[in-house]
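Incident log, support desk, overnight shift.

02:14 A customer reports that sequence design results differ from what the structure should imply. Their input is reproduced verbatim below. On-call engineer (initials T.W.) acknowledged and began investigating.
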């Protein structure tokens, strides 16, 4: 196309899913016109590109095969985005699924995830969560001593279930992220147990004839450098040596690998570097300590699904307030609270009219009665008009999973796109859905 501003095409399009193309001055994903999809449905509308999901998991699996000589597994983080279709997709790639509590376990089961592939996390698991975990999961990651005592007290009722127990370590070391709310490994974190608590947990387990066969830790989410993981890996392997793991044991140095949300953050962090850094540290650490190589688990988190998703909003009103231009849309904090929670940055493209030149800076906000209902601030854009569509990339993780009914919002429809095929993964909520819980 002539007169295309290369800033649009090279920088911002690089944030979109693999199957995104600019055709006839408009955005297409997997051959589907985003304008046509949105015009045939209500907005906000979420679309996911199957090709991006498949390519990303293939990259992780290839890196682990190249750099880790032992057995390895990949766990999909249900909290990033989970529905029956995504759960079914995980099994096509032989993934484990990380579920936090009874609700996510239920979705995983409905999506066809077998018991041995369900791994249960949770910082304060309820009795219902633990009951569901023992009935339906293959692995429970124990977060604290109170939880372990409850498991020991009620273990008789679960006799005969085949559940693997891991212990979650708080390593006292966080990774560098853009906000404190996305850090989990520091000393004052609410997650996990100290070294002393881990060793105490092992003794409690022995008295109850429970076998501990894994260690897990997590240091933060959306980080870009694997180097800070190394000291935590060393600490965890020291503890594994003290515990005396032998035979098959499991080791998970968490996940949270980052993705680029804004063109200023490109290129996205290398999946190969992440997997290689962890694999080499574990291999060398086990060799030094005389430990058998564990089954190595990676939890890539958002980096598996974030870039696959795009949010499509429709512009409702435009307001000029001094030097600030507000683009008010039908989507915002009810389907994407990440800006309100921790100032997440995003970029954007118009769905049509890609050949327009940038001529202003805009802030994009939603319809909700909160000043924090903002999605993007001060982004260079062309002159937008009321009624047109915009597309926000890297919307696949922690949007719909954290969405709400604030102000009576009805959560959006989500589509899975392939060449020649559109699958409805989630239907749009209705007012009747909002009223269904009322007695």
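02:41 Re-run completed on a clean worker. Output:
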């Amino acid at each position: 196309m002539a007169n295309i501003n290369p800033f649009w095409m090279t920088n911002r399009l690089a944030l979109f899913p693999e199957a995104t193309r600019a055709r006839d001055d408009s955005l297409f994903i997997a051959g589907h016109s985003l304008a046509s999809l949105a015009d045939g449905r209500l907005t906000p509308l979420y679309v996911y590109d199957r090709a991006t999901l498949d390519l990303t998991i293939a990259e992780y699996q290839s890196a682990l095969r190249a750099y880790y000589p032992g057995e390895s597994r990949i766990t999909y983080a249900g909290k990033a985005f989970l529905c029956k279709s995504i759960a079914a997709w995980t099994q096509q790639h032989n993934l484990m699924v990380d579920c936090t509590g009874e609700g996510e376990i239920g979705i995983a089961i409905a999506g066809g995830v077998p018991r041995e592939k369900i791994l249960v996390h949770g910082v304060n698991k309820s009795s219902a969560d633990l009951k569901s975990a023992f009935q339906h999961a293959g692995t429970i990651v124990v977060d604290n001593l109170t939880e372990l005592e409850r498991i020991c007290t009620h273990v008789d009722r679960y006799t005969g279930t085949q559940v693997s127990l891991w212990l979650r370590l708080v390593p006292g070391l966080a990774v560098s992220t853009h906000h404190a709310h996305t850090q989990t490994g520091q000393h004052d974190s609410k997650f996990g147990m100290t070294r002393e608590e881990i060793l105490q947990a092992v003794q409690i387990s022995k008295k109850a004839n429970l076998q501990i066969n894994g260690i897990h830790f997590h240091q933060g989410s959306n980080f870009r450098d694997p180097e800070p993981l190394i000291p935590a890996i060393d600490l965890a392997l020291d503890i594994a040596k003290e515990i005396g793991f032998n035979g098959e044991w499991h080791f998970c140095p968490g996940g949270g690998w980052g993705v680029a949300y804004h063109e200023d953050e490109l290129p996205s962090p290398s999946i190969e570097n992440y997997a290689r850094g962890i694999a080499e540290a574990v291999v060398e650490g086990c060799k030094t300590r005389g430990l058998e190589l564990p089954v190595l688990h990676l939890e890539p988190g958002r980096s598996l699904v974030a870039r696959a998703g795009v949010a499509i909003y429709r512009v409702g009103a435009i307001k000029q307030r001094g030097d600030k231009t507000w683009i008010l849309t039908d989507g915002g904090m009810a389907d994407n609270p990440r800006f309100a929670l921790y100032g997440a940055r995003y970029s954007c493209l118009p769905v049509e009219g890609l050949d327009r030149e940038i001529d202003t800076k805009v802030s994009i906000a939603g319809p909700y009665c909160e000043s924090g209902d903002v999605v993007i601030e001060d982004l260079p854009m062309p002159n937008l008009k009321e009624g047109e569509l915009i597309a926000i990339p890297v919307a696949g993780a922690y949007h719909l999973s954290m969405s709400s009914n604030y102000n009576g919002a009805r959560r959006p429809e989500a589509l899975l796109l392939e060449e020649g095929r559109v699958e409805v993964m989630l239907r749009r909520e209705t007012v009747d859905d909002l009223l269904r819980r009322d007695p």
